[in-house]
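re: ur question from yesterday

yeah so i grabbed the chain u mentioned. its 627 aa long if i counted rite. heres the sequnce exactly as i have it in my notes:
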Amino acid sequence: MTSTAMTPTRAMTSEGLLTRMRTASGAQMSPDGQEIVYVVSGIDPDTSKGVSQLWLIRLEDKSTRQLTFNGAVNRAPALSPDGNHIAFVSNRDGDDRWSLCVMPRDGGEASTVDMFEKAPLSLAWRPDGQAIAVAMPIGGVPEGSARVITRIDYKQDNRGIINDERHQVVLVSLDAKGSRQLTHEAFDHQSPQWSPDGTLLAVKQTRLNGMVSHLLLIDTDGHEQARIGTDTGTIGTWSWSPDGLSIVYDGAETPSPQSDYYRYDVRAGTSQRLTDDPGFSSVSGFPTISGPDQPVWIGPNSVRVHGIQAGASGIWELDTQTGELDKIVWWDATHAGFSADDSHNRMVQGRSSLESNGELVLLDFEAGDTRRITHLNDELFEKMPLARADKITIDREGWAIDAWVLKPAGFDSSQTYPVVLDVHGGPHGNYGYSFNAGAQLMASAGYVVVAANPRGSGTYGRAFGEAVRGDWGGEDWRDLLAVLDTVLEESWADADRTAIYGYSYGGYMTSWAIGQTDRFKAAVCGAPVFNFHSFYGTSDIGHVFGETQWGGTPAEVGEWMTERSPSTWIHRATTPTLIVHGESDHRCPIGQGEEMFVALLKAGCEVEFVRYPGGSHLMLRGAPLAL
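ran it thru and got these structure tokens back, copy pasting raw so excuse formatting
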């Protein structure tokens, strides 16, 4: 076993986590590299609702000022091409009306450009600054209406029964004060990006609740000019070259936890694959707190890309002719977002680390340094002692299995501590050098927490990620036990007081564990995949995700699905268990928790079931303060 001691960190209380911690996100750097517009978000303790406002920081004197005050939610800032104006989305006119607003960057009142019944998702200024492309929900069925369903992707977690509602791209003209819809296909359309000359939009089209995606090139009348990708693959990030003749994107031609980079020739209409398993991921773990980070062109044949490798962020330079990747900087932290000035010497990203969360960092490539430029939670963390985190790595059957061991503040190695095995969601999620609020809360209660990345976890490359397919509850389970047993060899670890906690795929593993062993004295199971057969037909992604993960339909692999379902073995469970589940979870539906609850009661096992009314899978909807 190898072990690397990390800088001591501190833990949080639930009160601090939910009502006092703030996060900075959505950072946009001005073209001149002098100022950054960003969103500060938190939770209003009086209403239990999220609040967000726009702020601006001047890098020269480090001064900050709040830009928006009207409305509880102001977000999705987008700087105009000349950097003089900020477009953003606001609910300043009430929760049921959303405004597209524009305000001067140097101060002044915002003006409303257009109004929408549903919240826009993303904005993109046309290069001439005279129009904005907006991705937003359109269509649907009013609440209370009878719902006639004819398509398989009729619901989506955090959105509910969407039926005919889909995200479409609308072009809002700033001079004529009008708008027109550009996309109409009955699929979601996201994250429009303009070509440098403003004649084309690159738009991500997703199907089957994001399990399949393409990149569409459409003109300003909405006519499709090209479709990039395969019928079974996915598109992650993309970026136009400065001359508009190429697009670099990352994606996969078949369902895979590992994407590759490609260069699309706009004139020829062909794609060239540049990499074969770069070994890092362009998204930031589970839950993914932001969209993938778009590549930044720094020359005619070179882009910078951000990725997570073995739980840590890095930036690579990619040669778009040869596919050569050069890792130029990395941190013991995870970053998100990627906005650069016109010189590409300065970039801003969001940052999460073992000892902080929700801050912004400035990357100065000319000076060769990275520095934090916000301090939203310094006072909070100074008052709340954080858990210390150590990374350990074990070797199992030739695989390096990483884990982060969080020890309570004031840890004393002469004492003994109960140990909690914390299993991430996914299965292609991952733990790493990022703030783990749940683990910090458990450590603050006196537990040592072991957050492990078994095979299947993301950020370790294709072979490691795909090793879990067709083997849920197999070698992934044994990887977790091996990590736990390694920790339990320490004199301070109490092997007679161990527990297991997990959410989503982690909930699967928790419900699997208590049917396989009685070694755990307690279990907390969040939103589990409990019964593969019922999950397949009731989850918003079960019929696609399940076939990818398990190797086929219930008719094809039903026997294996029965064997690897926790529901098959739960009658043997004796571990006292707490089940937590959102009642509006469409990813791992509440029925999974209900089946588990009844089965444990019938088995005579001590069990409690906590249900959150309105709660979605990641509790993005519902009552967060109840958590």
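noticed a couple things. The longest helix spans residues 475-488. also The chain has eleven helices and 39 strands.
anyway ttyl
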